[in-house]
Amino acid sequence: MAKKLGKKARKFAHKHLQGGAKRSRKLRSQFNRRTRKDGKGREDDNRLDGDGDGGGEETRRNDAIMNMNDDVATLANCLEFPEDENELDGDLSDSDGYLSEDPECMYYSDSDDDNVLKECIVQDDLGEQNNEMRLAVKKQKKKLKKLLDKDPKFANFLEKWQLELVNYESKEDSDEEDEMDSVENGVDSGDKDPPSDKILTSKTISEWCQLVLDEPKAPALRNLLNAFRDACQFGLKSNSLSMQRLQSTEVFYQIISFVLSKADNIFRALLEISDDDKGKLMNQRNGKKWQDIELLIKSYLWNSLDLISQLTDNQILTYVLTQLRTSAVYFSAYPSTSRRLLKILVRLWASGDQNLSLSSFLMIREVASLLPDCLDFCLTKTYNAYLSSSKIVDNRNIENIDFILNCLVELYSLDIQKAGERAVISVGQLSAILRQASKTKGKKIF
User: Fold this and answer.
1) Global pTM?
2) Distant-in-sequence, close-in-space partners of 370: CB < 8 Å, separation ≥ 6
3) Which of 130, 134, 160, 404 is the most buried (most CB within 10 A)?
4) Pair 228, 300: CB distance under 8 Å
């Protein structure tokens, strides 16, 4: 006969070996019945199957006690609000690509000064060769004129063939012009993919930035947003187009810093909004001016999302989020994109880095205040992130948990009615857990 486990061993087995303990209790309830007061021993075969009243009641009681501990864990998980993961990126589905560039917008090399000197030398050499060729042509014309004067029949023969040659050349020129037109049309239709040999240099970006600052409607803005797209995907793949066009980190930081810091002012200038009134900007969403530049705005927002979702350096992320906060009003025009942004921001907010958490929270609050439709999603995400961060509390993360809690209170204060409804639900869940825990303790399960 197996030795009976002590109290501590039974408690350990119940706490850490729930499956084994549950099976043992079921077996004991079926085969090791205690002797009843009337002197009867084991139950009959029907009681073994749990069909009898005594055995079935004992089994149900043991199963209920066993399931209480599982119910507590289940209720604890139920503190988290359910999240809707059916997020759509349909708002920016047509912005994942390059914008059509103006062919007249120049690309510059960092060594253009040296190239100018080389071009001058080459032009001088070509000038000398041209002079020599002109002298040789003049000599041949003089010889031909003397020959025509001596032989009139030969002169008539040359005139006849010269007319036919002129007609033939004019026909060939017209055919070539048609072919060139068709080729040019084909190039224009595929201009959305810039050639891989167009390298983005520091001088090129500086020239484009100056053009855009002088005139926001300049064609250089499209080129600059394409460069921003390459910068946001820089380093993802070694053989990608962005790695071919961006060949230095200096150009990367130059593009990122200019576009993030000046995008809001540029778009406001294109929308002809002079002040910082967000209400005027939000009222422009269905206007013609917004539709004219909507593709530019979508490209900027889509690439900004890619940037913050791929960066791993906390200092760069903090800088990017600080600069991107002024663009929260543009994100609010696209609800599903705002949900994707909030999902990224909540993850960064709960990361534990103080500066990054603060920058993330400031933008979370900005988006939530501008777009009430996303407030429920925002409150759910942040509350669940707080619960996840609070599962383990020690001296290292106590300050971060306190900071997250204060941020959560500030977010819930944006809408007192919704905050009250969620508080009632949370209190009800907590009371259910405490009630279940008190019952379980009464059964001496712990």
Assistant:
1) 0.61
2) 278, 282, 328, 329, 332
3) 404
4) yes
